[in-house]
Design a protein that fits this description.
heterodimer; A: about 260 residues; Rossmann fold; 6-stranded mixed sheet; 4-stranded antiparallel sheet; 10 strands; globular; B: about 325 residues; mainly alpha; MetI-like fold; about 65% helix
Chain lengths: ~260, ~325
């Protein structure tokens, strides 16, 4: 890890409980800006929970208590004057199962704009431009430019997942959280999403939760290994896989458990 | 399949495994007896057939009362049935003529009660399903809804009498009766609306939350459009309940007889009492001497037909709206 690199997200003493079950234990982590960070670990280790902390969407699921501090771009997101709406605009999430909204492709892409801007600010030209730019950025423009009125739920899964990423882009997010974005996709779809992530890197900070260690190794710059709600190891990806410092990490990346 | 030269077939169906693929050599005789019915299997199959038959018979038995009721009613009502019966007013001390005042009265009562109950019920359900957290206050609300649904209609009637007729000084009127019916249908509307809302996949809500949509934006743009068919169906199905209830309106606003013009759709004012189909059926059956025999039956047929018509509309509407949405 390069300590001088600016960090997109830092946490300090982060604890989280679902009811009485503690899902995150004293998490202290600093995730680099503009790179891809992978979070790996066996099921139930808290990686999705941690991901959901970064835009506080955890709180929508009920029964969640959090203590500690999370700074996104330097700002503590638990400060009382932080607007969750503005936070989630800047920190978007992509899910395991592609979840396009049951409206047209076009409306999916401009959904965020429509939500965050009064109607009169949104001229047709501005929306059209946003759609073209976002779809171009995720590589769907060529395929879909004549089918913008098609129902998003009728697309192939891979296209749906790209669309879910495109849906975030018009809001100019700083961070994109991806929760196992490829686990519902086939090999080609996975490759396409991975390539897209690598293209988006630099412009956005990407944080991906994955079960697939090979995927973490392929695409991530840094890697966080979690176990039982704790961060065991966080290093550059090659280092974590080749010279893990902790024996638990070593056993996990070699596939002895998980 | 190629010939299997060795092994003379020894019995029925033996050709199937005669090749002995993977079967231990020398145990071919045993292989013949593999996977055949044992006595115990035959017994299980008998039970299976028997159970299926019983369940089918019970399900099919549901048709009998429906056909019997509709058939009997229509047969008995036949001499009086016709458009004239619906449009005409009762004559000769209600022993002859039609049911127009009761028909219009029921329209008023049902329409007004749903106009009150549907918005309140739907909005309450949206709160309970989309906003409410699991705390004591919301549990009290849910408990109230469940218990309200279990209150007998005659008790609603008494409540309506006390609350609307006397306390609110609406008197015996369409307004009082409709409000009583509204309170009676509310819990069911809340329950059916919640069910419709809960059927919208959570992934849609997650998608909205994660671009920073407020709860209301999520509800308005995604949840409601995708649950409207279920919500409407639930509301419309309450029409039949409101139209059929007698007790609540009897105490609060329905009368035996009220003179209005034939075919007049705007015959009642909301602070007046009115006739109603369910009440009229009760009256002509038990309270009026020498009624033409087919009159009560024809009244029942009109009530039943209106309710079935409304339910059919609900189903049609549901199908139409469902065809427009695709997940």
């Amino acid at each position: 890890m390069n300590p001088t690199a600016p960090h997109a997200i830092t946490t300090k003493g982060l604890n989280l409980w679902y009811g009485t079950f503690q899902a995150l234990v004293d998490v202290n982590v600093a995730l680099p800006h503009g790179l891809i960070t992978a979070m790996i670990g066996p099921s139930g280790c808290g990686k999705t929970t941690l991901l959901r902390c970064f835009n506080r969407v955890n709180e929508r699921y009920g029964g969640v208590t959090t203590t500690g501090e999370i700074r996104v771009l330097g700002r503590n997101i638990y400060d009382p004057d932080v607007s969750l709406i503005e936070l989630r605009k800047a920190v978007g999430m992509v899910f395991q199962r592609p979840n396009p909204l049951p409206i047209s492709v076009y409306e999916n892409v401009v959904f965020g704009l429509r939500i965050h801007h009064p109607r009169r600010e949104l001229s047709r030209a501005r929306l059209d431009e946003a759609v073209e730019r976002a779809l171009t950025e995720v590589g769907l423009w060529g395929d879909l430019k004549d089918r913008l009125d098609a129902r998003a739920t009728s697309l192939q899964l891979e296209q749906q997942q790209k669309l879910c990423i495109a849906r975030l882009l018009p809001l100019k997010p700083e961070v994109i959280l991806l929760d196992e974005p490829c686990s519902a996709l086939d090999v080609e779809g996975t490759r396409a999403i991975e390539e897209l992530m690598c293209e988006l890197k630099g412009r956005y900070t990407l944080i991906i939760v994955t079960h697939n260690m090979a995927q973490a190794r392929r695409i991530s710059d840094e890697c966080v290994f979690m176990l039982l709600g704790q961060i065991i190891e966080h290093r550059r990806t090659e280092a974590l896989f080749l010279q893990p410092a902790d024996s638990r990490t070593a056993d996990y990346v070699e596939g002895r458990y998980g | 399949m190629t010939d299997v030269p060795f092994q003379e077939p020894t019995g029925e169906g033996s050709g199937r495994d005669a090749g002995g693929l993977g079967a231990p050599s020398g145990s071919d005789a045993g292989a013949e007896r593999r996977f055949v019915r044992t006595a115990f299997v035959r017994r299980k199959e008998r039970f299976e057939a028997w159970a299926r038959g019983v369940f089918l018979a019970m399900a099919a038995a549901m048709i009998v009362p429906l056909v019997a009721i509709v058939g009997h009613l229509t047969y008995e009502a036949w001499p009086s049935l016709g458009l004239e019966f619906v449009l005409d007013i009762p004559r000769q001390g209600m022993t002859e003529g039609g049911i127009w005042p009761a028909f219009v009265g029921t329209l008023y009562l049902v329409g007004l009660s749903l106009a009150v109950a549907a918005p309140i019920g739907v909005l309450a359900a949206v709160y309970l399903n989309e906003y409410a957290r699991d705390n004591w206050f919301n549990r009290v609300i849910q408990l109230a809804v469940i218990n309200l649904a279990g209150v007998p209609s005659i008790v609603h009637a008494l409540f309506g009498l006390g609350a609307f007729v006397y306390a609110a000084r609406f008197g015996y009127s369409i307004l009082s009766a409709s409000l009583t019916l509204a309170i009676m249908t509310l819990p069911v509307i809340i329950a059916s609306t919640r069910e419709a809302l809960a059927a919208v996949p959570r992934s849609f809500r997650e998608a909205c939350w994660n671009v920073g949509a407020t709860r209301w934006q999520t509800i308005r743009s995604i949840v409601l459009p995708n649950s409207i068919s279920g919500i409407l169906t639930g509301v419309i199905l309450q029409v039949s309940r409101a139209a059929g209830e007698t007790a609540p309106i009897m105490f609060t606003g329905a009368v035996f007889y009220k003179a209005i013009a034939r075919g007049d759709l705007f015959a009642y004012r909301l602070d007046e009492q009115c006739m109603a189909l369910s009440m009229h059926l009760y009256t002509v059956t038990t309270q009026v001497p020498n009624v033409r025999e087919s009159v009560p039956y024809a009244t029942a047929v009109v009530l039943l037909a209106s309710v079935l018509l409304v339910n059919a509309t609900a189903i049609g509407l549901r199908l139409w709206l469902r065809n427009r949405k695709r997940w």
